[in-house]
């Protein structure tokens, strides 16, 4: 009977993790470039009381055996990098990647961060930075005299001078990974490379499978509210069922205690 108690307890813990993940998805439903997380679970070890195929008599064997599971555990949480919907903002420096790829930003420690959040701003020096002040990599500085700044789908940044000349300013490069789900999420809509993600593959937007850049747009979160609400209800019900299993096991132990 104690086995049922511990097994149900692992179920309650797993559903709590599921609710935690789902709550974070819902909390970031309006976060630019946010990618929803999925919780993956695995069953625990089994107590093998009779192995499948074991002999039951001379010339016969057990077709299934007796295997009693000991519960569940959280195996991993995984980011899903499906592209979110694009929202038009009209801001010259906003950009959304339609397809595969990440923008690169220089972090305070000098390392490179990767983001799908294309909400860019110009600082006091004319440098393109994100909301946290991290500059784009490669660095792009917009001259004070620049008007009508244009970001092409291929990542080419150009502007028009007062006399009508078009000047090419820079080339935005994007990055992809063999396993983007292995990236380390550090908050602030930024990821870091990890041993599981593989090394960054750098290229120009629109080339070699990289997505194109849409100027004046932002990529919204890929969280589907209705889907997450269903997950939330499912996890809540599963938590309640495991709680009922604990209560039932406790009641049966009490009855056994009375017999003693």
Provide the β-strand percentage band.
25-35%
Helix-strand topology string: HEEEEEEEEEEEEEEEEEEEEEH
Taking all Cα atoms into account, the compactness measure Rg is: 27 Å
In total, the number of strands is 21
**Structural class of the secondary elements?**
alpha+beta
Determine the mean pLDDT. Answer: 92
Note the gap between the termini: 15 Å
Low-confidence stretches: none
Number of domains: 2
What portion of residues is helical? Answer: 10-25%
Compute the number of helices.
2
The main β sheet shows up as:
4 strands, antiparallel
What general form does the structure show?
Answer: elongated
**Sheet with the most strands: spatial strand order:** 10-9-16-19
Write a short abstract of this structure.
This protein is an alpha+beta fold and 260 residues long. Helix content is 23%, strand content 33%.
Q: What does the model show?
A:
The chain is an alpha+beta fold. It contains 2 helices and 21 strands. The strands form 9 sheets. It has a 4-stranded antiparallel β-sheet with strand order 10-9-16-19, with no helix packed on it. It has a 3-stranded antiparallel β-sheet with strand order 13-14-15, with no helix packed on it. A hairpin with a 2-residue loop joins strand 3 (55-57) and strand 4 (60-61). Helix 1 (2-27) runs antiparallel to helix 2. The chain has helices at 2-27, 225-259; strands at 37-43, 46-50, 55-57, 60-61, 66-69, 72-79, 86-88, 95-98, 102-106, 112-115, 121-122, 128-129, 147-151, 156-160, 166-171, 174-176, 184-187, 190-192, 201-203, 212-215, 217-219. The model has no long low-confidence stretch (mean pLDDT 92). It is elongated, with a radius of gyration of 27 Å. It has 2 domains: 2-81 and 223-259, no CATH class; 86-219, no CATH class. It starts with a helix and ends with a helix.
